[in-house]
Amino acid sequence: MSDVMLEVKNLTTKYVTRFHEDVYAVDHVSLKIERGKSLGIAGESGCGKSTLALSLMGYYFPPLHYMSGDIIIDGKNISGMDPDKVRRTVLGTEIAYIPQAAMNALNPTRKIRKFIEDVILAHDPKVSKKDIYELAQNRFAELGLPVEALDKHAVELSGGMKQRVVIAISTILRPKVLIADEPSSALDVTSQKMVIKMLRDMMDKGMIQAMIFITHELPLLYNVTDDIMVMYAGQIVERGSAKEMVFDPVHPYSRGLMNSILVPEEGTRSVKLTAIPGTPPNLKNPPAGCRFAERCRYAKPECRYNQMPIIDFAPGRTYRCGTSVEELRELYRKEDEMNAAEASSDTGAADGPVRLTKGV
Ligand SMILES: Nc1ncnc2c1ncn2[C@@H]1O[C@H](COP(=O)(O)OP(=O)(O)OP(=O)(O)O)[C@@H](O)[C@H]1O
Ligand code: SF4
Ligand SMILES: [Mg+2]
Hints:
Number of helices: 9
Oligomer: single chain
Strand order of the largest sheet: 6-7-8-3-9-10-13-12
Number of strands: 14
Bound molecules: adenosine-5'-triphosphate, iron/sulfur cluster, magnesium ion
Helix content: 25-40%
């Protein structure tokens, strides 16, 4: 038994489009998650979060292709494993993935217990339906879900309940690692909280050993995961503890993400909301230098030509940028001072700067 539940070394995967173009959506990604820990992955749309999640399952079929790197789950290297073996011995037990919008993909005319039967019988065809039903009832009770939901059709459940049921179905075989891709995005705030609480309870009760929670909203991850990793254009650009990433983001893109999203909750700090200009680069032909250079307000000429390696700059903290941490922090300090001065001189006129409280 290893203390590292998931270790990924230099994983590169690509899509090959029907026009035979390569899209490098996961580019030399490395990460580690220890037993009992959770990792949040944040980044804008198209940054490669879902592709990374799919790639971590080790189950590749076109247009997604494995290129290089290692995926080690609880000491077992699954990279390069035959897809059929992955399906039989890895999916659902070692690692499970709840895809984006999974709750909307449930066939509305089938009862929930039928989905659970499918998952268990695909793993072990000899289990009786009576045993499956008993297991499902116990699991629903353990997770605080109404047992009657097992005999309902997906269409009869509310959005929040449907999502919690999807999580229960996906984890019925107690996977060691669970990847939840935007599990709370389409839900109202109350249902979001219930989904997040359920995932945390599953971690606390040891039903899952490690979790990856994907979202495009970096601040949402505060209080949800232990660590946060920010992805941009297929690469990791920063990683740190949730607190460090929310209160002291170092990479200009992480700071941009923090300053561009408003969370509708009681806040602990006030920031001026600023959108990141532009859009992420096309991954068919990514920029030669720093991939964020086109949109970075601190870019220097050399940023466009130099490949930026990922660097450890403090225990548990890494970033990918050519500007030193000290220089970036000094730039941010000056910017925050200017914003604070602007706010204090703000008379509340309609055309003054908008200041909002951000719940982090
Ligand atoms: N089937 C596919 N074929 C080719 N390219 C694809 C395919 N699916 C995704 N991509 C491309 O891969 C890149 C990463 O997409 P991905 O869906 O992983 O991003 P994401 O971060 O999950 O975005 P979102 O927040 O919108 O879910 C994008 O450039 C996208 O256009
Ligand atoms: S390397 Fe340059 S362009 Fe890229 S994030 Fe750092 S400062 Fe900005
Ligand atoms: Mg996605």
